[in-house]
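agent> call fold_tool(seq_1)
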Amino acid sequence: MEVRVMKKRILFMMLGVTGLFITACHVINHPIALEYMTEPCLIPTKDNKFRLCDNMIVHIDNEYHAVPMGFKTDLATIPRIMWPFFAPSDYDCIAPAVLHDWHYCCSNEVDRKRADDIFYYALREHGMNRVKAYIYYLAVRVLGKKYYQYGVGIYRHEGEFAKEELQGIYKDVNYGLG
């Protein structure tokens, strides 16, 4: 009896994961044109995060998005047990994770779905293979809702960078601050 129950549970989990994967393969409506104008310059902090030591500017579908110098990020929020497979410090994950953290926390430029779509294409732009990028995408779609702050998280980052400086960055890249 117990073996049959285990088989059903395993089958149910496999069907669920397969369904999520198939869904993720079709949820991104169109390719996103993405180009990094600058790569992130990061300095580790005492609280196991990283601080941008220069502005990071990304051109996304004919719009500039800027992450200001001083912004703190944990890169990708991945449990340590998964790091051998999905390390937040992997090259192909760093810049996309910084941009995604900015969109989730402090930017009102994009909604959550768009932030996740951009994250997927940013991972691909940085050389991550399609399957691994989809796994990251699935993770943020399924688990990211509790972290998305609709842009109001910027108030928790006061003191990390000056709002005037952020406005100046956006002015420099000919993009209006929302």
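agent> call fold_tool(seq_2)
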Amino acid sequence: MELSLHQVAKIFRVSETQIIGWINSKNLPAELVSDQYRFHRADLLEWAAVANRSFDPSIYSEVNGDLTPAGTHLADALERGGILVDVSGKGIRDVLSNAIDGLPIPASIGHDDLIELLLARESVGSTALGDGIAVPHPRKPTLVSVPSAMVRLCYLSQPLAMKSPDGIPVDKLFLMICPTVHEHLQLLARLGALLQNESVGQALRDKVAGGEMFKILREAGQEFVAA
């Protein structure tokens, strides 16, 4: 269901002018239809989770009834997806192709199919968050039927221009594949919180991998479920 500018302002408890400001300066996803802004609920939740913006939790009831399993944490999802160092590529397609190599995805979704799903999401707005970090993922998570959420951290050999809000080229990808919309959004929220942690930020700058990174993420103690 699409939402109007007035409805979105109520959800975020701010003025309509503030919402327009976020569209222009904070990459809030919106579409212009007959000179009116229209918004998709899932896109708003994704943006809010990453931007750490509070909102009316009633919006969840309109997206997906599935909740994140109690034992799901970002570090667990990252252990399933793994960490790659020095991922290369001449452009975003090459980088994503190398990033998903070996990822345990269902046979029903081929390598090229997953790349197209990831590129389709980038076509409606960059998944770059700033500070050299991007979170590529399918626009509709349920199109990739995986039993458990997976996150793959990729340190790139060369920075990649991805229209980051701060203009900094991306050199770290958190590739995210989730079985439900809720799990995707809640893991995004957890990632957003962890990226505010100094020890996590330093580990990313140092390209820490393996068990040491999993330990740092768990010790950060900032994982939460957006409510």
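agent> summarizing second result for user.
The two ends are 20 Å apart (CA to CA). The first strand starts at residue 2 and ends at 4.
agent> awaiting next instruction.
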